[in-house]
């Protein structure tokens, strides 16, 4: 009896032990363990082949380790893109035109809410395909240095300070503020010195001086890494100063890791590792390319070249330990996102599908569009009354969805075109007619013209002109572009100009030109012909309604240009020249068509005397500047108050002036507001030819106004800025 009891007890003990062994969690799945401990535990359990499979954007599932399938490639430039129905916000260049960091934070928070919701419902259904994940390759913080670049629309414009401020806010909204988890992982791209030519990007060497690198091309990346703690950085296709960006010791190791202390992962642009041997020809084959990229700090390959890492190990081009170090960073990101954790432990797993394309997000999209639209000219034609006898809406982009969405877009079942927006705003007794009138970029095949007479016989004509994603964008996307998405011809299509001429001839009635597009273009003749000119950018799903609100005076326009509009390309250096001399408002000495920071309103603002907290500021100390802004007009309006700093005696290699602060304010008619800026030593510093940031001495001039401080701004109707000088002393 006793022997049978012992045998039974031993059997029970063995069964319990086996059950515990089966049910106990591996360390890497235990949320109570430190993240680094979990990462190292998982690495020890993986074969080399399994490790390599997790270092390309499309990760296969590893069932024995309970690792799910995952694709790292997702986009959210101005809304969750390429994934399905989502809120379509205005394109990035339009968001930047708002000069509103709080608004940028709200937008990216809404986008990340929708991204999490899409991920949550997709995973619940067992769908884990591309564009349904949590790692978003956004934002694009390259400097829009030349209007020929078709992807400039994806950026926040030409200024490193504005790009930094909007970019930091955008990343914070994407990644969330939970202490344990990322809502989604943001990515600063394309690192670095990358802005065309688009077709040459797979072989091009962008040459930039250390001064231009530190003063223009790197500040936004630095801000996103050191302030916003962006989780990922995408290295660019091209070479920078002769080294491929995805194998660049200076960029990836010296600056990103050692100087800025970046802890996240680096991902290649898609196919960039293949370019090592096919385009740049710096190595002989895929194994050498993959080994070089990993050794230089690129953990994730968007592409398939990292499959060659197995051969690279066999050839002793790289060690498995080096692969472990690169993969550990990626596993860390996945753990920060909660991909290995139960949903109950992650607050973002509770975000439901109700937020996707919600009424709240639609209203936010419209708010961004309203604040982004730039009034370039107004001879008094705007705002229009909404109860005129007859309106005529025409132009190739008036009823065109492509002119709302730009590139890297999502889809939406309710997109309001310009024609639809205007139709929804006019009174029932008013008549409205619509005809496209002309084709986007070529002459009409049918010569019969039913449009010109319609324009003459109406009370107001609204013509929607410009460009769209068919002729500007990324290399393979702009299917009507002969230059692979770039715009080597600065003019808008000539047939559109001729169309506008015909409508204006012998026509005393007002013609309102609405211009779509994501980059500067030659609007000189449109400016002369039209009575008012509105730049709408790519304004998103509510674009038509936003434009109509402004045309009919519900809202005063308040957008400001985040990029200079030159009069012609002859005012600029060669497209392939990455030197900043002659480029952007900071270094362009010729008079532009429209200056950086420019934009009119339906009111008139006046800037009072500039007051400084000191006349002699000691080097290394902060100070303040302030002025009183008055709304002298009859309408309430937002104004973007801009602070520029100049060092007039510092030499010809220094910027003419640089944006160092901005505040968006709203003033009722007749109201005033004191606007104050704190000026830090960093804002007063200069970058020398060696790329060193130095605190300087001497005279400094401050400008506070409604545009960049050049005569052209005042000629176009912007009030004279408040100005003042101080001396920086030892």
UniProtKB/TrEMBL annotation:
It holds the Pfam family Glyco_hydro_3_C. This is Glycoside hydrolase family 3 C-terminal domain-containing protein. Transmembrane segments: none annotated. Belongs to the glycosyl hydrolase 3 family. It comes from Pinibacter soli. SMART domains: Fn3_like. Residues 639-708 form the Fibronectin type III-like domain. InterPro entries: BXL, Fn3-like, GH, Glyco_hydro_3_C, Glyco_hydro_3_C_sf, Glyco_hydro_3_N, Glyco_hydro_3_N_sf, Ig-like_fold. GO terms for molecular function: hydrolase activity. Keywords: Hydrolase, Signal.
């Amino acid at each position: 009896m006793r022997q049978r009891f012992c045998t039974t007890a031993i059997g029970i003990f063995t069964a319990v032990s086996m059950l515990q062994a089966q049910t106990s969690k591996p360390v890497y799945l235990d949320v109570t363990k430190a993240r680094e401990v979990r990462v190292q535990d998982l690495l020890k359990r993986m074969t080399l082949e399994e490790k390599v499979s997790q270092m390309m954007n499309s990760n296969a599932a590893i069932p024995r380790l309970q690792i799910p399938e995952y694709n790292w490639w997702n986009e959210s430039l101005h809304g969750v893109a390429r994934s399905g129905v989502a809120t379509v916000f205005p394109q990035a260049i339009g968001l930047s035109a708002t000069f509103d960091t709080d608004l940028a934070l709200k937008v990216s928070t809404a986008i990340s809410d929708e991204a999490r919701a899409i991920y949550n419902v997709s995973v619940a259904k067992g769908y884990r395909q591309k564009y349904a994940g949590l790692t978003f390759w956004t934002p694009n913080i390259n400097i829009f240095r030349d209007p020929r670049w078709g992807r400039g629309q994806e950026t926040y414009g030409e200024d490193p300070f504005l790009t930094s401020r909007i970019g930091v806010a955008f990343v914070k909204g994407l990644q969330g503020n939970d202490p344990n988890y990322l809502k989604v992982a943001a990515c600063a791209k394309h690192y670095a010195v990358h802005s065309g030519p688009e077709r040459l990007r797979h072989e091009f060497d962008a040459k930039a001086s250390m001064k231009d690198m530190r003063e223009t091309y790197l500040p936004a990346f630095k801000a996103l890494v050191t302030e916003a703690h962006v989780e990922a950085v995408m290295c660019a296709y091209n070479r920078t100063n002769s080294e491929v960006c995805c194998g660049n010791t200076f960029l990836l190791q010296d600056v990103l890791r050692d100087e800025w202390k970046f802890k996240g992962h680096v991902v290649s642009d898609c196919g960039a590792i293949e370019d090592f041997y096919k385009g740049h020809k710096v190595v002989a084959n895929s194994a050498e390319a993959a080994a070089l990229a990993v050794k230089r700090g690129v953990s994730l390959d968007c592409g398939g070249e990292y499959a060659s890492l197995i051969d690279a190990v066999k050839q002793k081009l790289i060690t498995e330990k080096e692969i472990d170090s690169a993969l550990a960073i990626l596993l860390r990101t996945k753990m920060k996102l909660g991909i290995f954790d139960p949903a109950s432990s992650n607050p973002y797993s509770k975000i439901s599908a109700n937020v996707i394309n919600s009424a709240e997000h639609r209203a936010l999209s419209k708010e961004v569009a309203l604040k982004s639209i730039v009034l370039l000219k107004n001879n008094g034609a705007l705002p229009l009354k909404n109860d005129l006898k007859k309106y005529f809406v025409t132009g190739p982009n008036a009823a065109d969805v492509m002119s709302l969405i730009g590139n890297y877009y999502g889809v939406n079942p309710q997109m309001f075109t310009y024609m639809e927006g205007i139709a929804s705003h006019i009174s029932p007794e008013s008549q409205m007619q619509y005809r496209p009138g002309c084709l986007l970029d070529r002459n009409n095949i049918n010569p019969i013209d039913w449009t010109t007479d319609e324009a003459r016989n109406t009370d107001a004509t609204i013509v929607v002109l410009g460009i769209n994603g068919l002729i500007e964008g990324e290399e393979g996307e702009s299917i009507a572009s002969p230059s692979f998405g770039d715009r080597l011809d600065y003019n808008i299509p000539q047939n559109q100009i001729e169309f506008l001429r015909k409508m204006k001839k012998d026509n005393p009635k007002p013609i309102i030109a609405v211009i779509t597009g994501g980059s500067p273009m030659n609007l000189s003749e449109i400016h002369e012909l039209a009575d008012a000119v509105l730049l709408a950018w790519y304004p998103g799903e509510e674009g038509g309604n936003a434009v109509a609100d402004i045309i009919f005076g519900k809202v005063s326009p308040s957008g400001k240009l985040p990029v200079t509009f030159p009069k012609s390309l002859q005012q600029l250096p060669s497209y392939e020249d990455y030197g900043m001399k002659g480029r952007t408002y900071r270094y362009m000495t010729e008079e532009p068509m429209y200056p950086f920071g420019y934009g009119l309103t339906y009111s008139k603002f006046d800037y009072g005397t500039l007051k400084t907290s000191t006349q002699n500021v000691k080097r290394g100390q902060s100070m303040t500047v302030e002025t009183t802004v008055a709304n002298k007009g009859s309408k309430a309006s937002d104004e973007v108050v801009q602070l520029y700093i100049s060092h007039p005696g510092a030499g010809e290699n220094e910027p003419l002036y640089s944006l160092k602060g901005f505040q968006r304010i709203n003033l009722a008619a007749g109201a005033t507001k004191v606007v104050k800026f704190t000026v830090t030593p960093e804002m007063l510093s200069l970058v020398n030819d060696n790329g060193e940031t130095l605190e300087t001495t001497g005279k400094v001039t401050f400008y506070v106004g409604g545009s960049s401080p050049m005569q052209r701004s005042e000629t176009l109707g912007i009030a004279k800025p408040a100005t003042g000088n101080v001396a920086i002393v030892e």
